[in-house]
Recover the amino acids of this structure.
């Protein structure tokens, strides 16, 4: 199984949108993406990569088929204490590709990207406690749970997040 991270191009937007389901919306995005919005997001990621700042994201390819998405963001301060500066990770895997270790592989690859590009020394995963699949991904990747803090989900409802951290 070959898992690779590659920059996302406009022609990948349709496959990315088709890979969203109710789990993606519930736990990550708060709504289904449009083609135009997804392309605009890819453009922002490309600009950030070029400038070497902000959120940088990739498509996750499994044997040359787009199977998910992962990004890293050094600017997310939610739930942090003074002195903490972890790089936040977000990810989703398309339904057809779930349960095969794609997320664990993608998190490992984005952690290497963070280290190789000197973006940060610690990674963070913020996850709702009921999102058992993502909690398991964090645990499998060596993250430790630090604290629970109040937040809003992507739809604006009050929830709690668990902050997981991992020194790279
Ligand atoms: C969370 C998500 C990315 C996991 O992707 P995945 O590629 O299926 O995960 P993996 O195959 O790498 O599995 C990692 C671990 O999670 C476990 N897992 C996967 N799906 C699970 C589920 N529905 N319930 C419980 N555990 C689950 C796997 O068994 C594995 O643990 P194990 O090795 O101990 O068996 C995927 O379910 C998803 O896209 N969810 C919607 C978006 C989301 O929640 N993003 C994260 C927001 S914090």
């Amino acid at each position: 199984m070959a898992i690779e991270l590659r920059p996302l191009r406009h022609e990948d937007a349709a496959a990315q949108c088709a890979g969203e389901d109710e789990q993606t919306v519930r736990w990550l995005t708060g709504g289904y993406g449009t083609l135009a919005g997804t392309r605009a997001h890819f453009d922002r990621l490309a600009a950030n990569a070029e400038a070497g700042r902000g959120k940088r994201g990739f498509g996750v390819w499994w044997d040359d088929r787009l199977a998910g998405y992962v990004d890293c963001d050094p600017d997310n301060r939610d739930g942090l204490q003074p002195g903490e500066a972890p790089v936040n990770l977000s990810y989703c895997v398309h339904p057809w590709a779930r349960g095969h270790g794609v997320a664990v592989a993608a998190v490992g690859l984005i952690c290497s990207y963070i280290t190789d590009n000197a973006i940060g020394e610690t990674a963070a995963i913020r996850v709702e406690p009921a999102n058992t699949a993502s909690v398991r991904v964090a645990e499998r990747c060596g993250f430790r749970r630090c604290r629970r803090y109040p937040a809003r989900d992507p739809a604006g409802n009050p929830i709690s997040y668990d902050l997981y951290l991992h020194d790279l």
The chain has a mean pLDDT of 96. Residues 23-24, 27-28, 91-93, 98-104, 127, 131-134, 136-137, 140 surround coenzyme A (CB under 6 Å). The beta strands are 3-6, 56-62, 65-73, 87-93, 122-127, 144-152, 158-167. The chain is about 35% helix and 30% strand.
